[in-house]
Description:
Blueprint: E1 3-5, E2 8-10, H1 14-51, E3 57-58, E4 73-80, E5 86-93, E6 96-106, E7 111-121, E8 139-146, E9 167-169, H2 174-181, E10 184-192, H3 212-236, E11 238-240
Parallel strand pairs: 3-4, 5-9, 7-10
Antiparallel strand pairs: 1-2, 2-11, 4-6, 4-8, 5-6, 6-7, 8-10
Amino acid sequence: xxxxxxxxxxxxxxxxxxxxxxxxxxxxxxxxxxxxxxxxxxxxxxxxxxxxxxxxxxxxxxxxxxxxxxxxxxxxxxxxxxxxxxxxxxxxxxxxxxxxxxxxxxxxxxxxxxxxxxxxxxxxxxxxxxxxxxxxxxxxxxxxxxxxxxxxxxxxxxxxxxxxxxxxxxxxxxxxxxxxxxxxxxxxxxxxxxxxxxxxxxxxxxxxxxxxxxxxxxxxxxxxxxxxxxxxxxxxxxxxxxxxxxxxx
Length: 249
């Protein structure tokens, strides 16, 4: 392919052109993917802000579906299973390592719901677990529904087969918890409201990992690289014609 534009001759070869086209498509695809991730996470943030303003709904053992409940404020009544608590490992607060305290709330003899009572700091040594006492007797719990991730990455065992209580675990596995507790659990977790007195540090935010603004910044970087590729391709394959080669009218 050859093209003369004024005093400039554009003459790329086919192999570099093909490679440049493939790389350009890849860079643009990565930028569009980042924009898509940004939009997806922005919807999560917006849903969180909207749903937390709703009036709470009362849950009981009949609320067996999580459909439409994400980020919804709920109220449940029952007794904490104080003898069987889980410590969700690798939770940080202001850069400090610790745990989320997961306490089952017995809504009935057959059914419970897992309540995340907030963050506590870890001990000076791994074997030194924090004190996570829970109140006994009937009580009312208010909080926000969170849907446990089904694909949380694990390095090593999840911790459910270790002995003793509270039990340190790496992720929420409701099916395993049901087997260990001996009663059914609703398919979601209630993040305890900060106004409830029987919890720990609670500053709940939707978990989105990298925020939508970071994804937009990454998209800008990929699109900038695509533009640089086009500029480099044009510069490398274009040369200025000598004056005696100019076409004169």
